[in-house]
Amino acid sequence: xxxxxxxxxxxxxxxxxxxxxxxxxxxxxxxxxxxxxxxxxxxxxxxxxxxxxxxxxxxxxxxxxxxxxxxxxxxxxxxxxxxxxxxxxxxxxxxxxxxxxxxxxxxxxxxxxxxxxxxxxxxxxxxxxxxxxxxxxxxxxxxxxxxxxxxx
Length: 152
Prior knowledge:
By secondary structure, this protein is mostly helical. The protein has seven helices and two strands; from the N terminus they run H-E-E-H-H-H-H-H-H. Helix content is 70%, strand content 5%.
């Protein structure tokens, strides 16, 4: 709980315990902006340097996210989404990037936000598949379009 408090997911209420933090729409947008500032350039670099055959390793993670989204499993989707982004950034070989981006991703998911319906999850998961298709095709322009929309 102390770790959650240090990351802003909960607030310590003296003599009472903990309270789940509420994130404002502005705070959620700021987290998305910071994630985009880190992840977009890294993914664009990967688009230029990673051979097409290596992207297939991420397909099962994108499929897991799509399956969770289709069933409306918000928690399952959150886990699959983090796994996909973590593996994608992991291809950079930069453990600091993976750690920092992963922390931001968790923080963005922890706070109760406006409820995401199944259609939102499905659209989000479809962006993972579209990104992989663009990366596999070696189309950095399409990859950039998809990943920027993903963070918008």
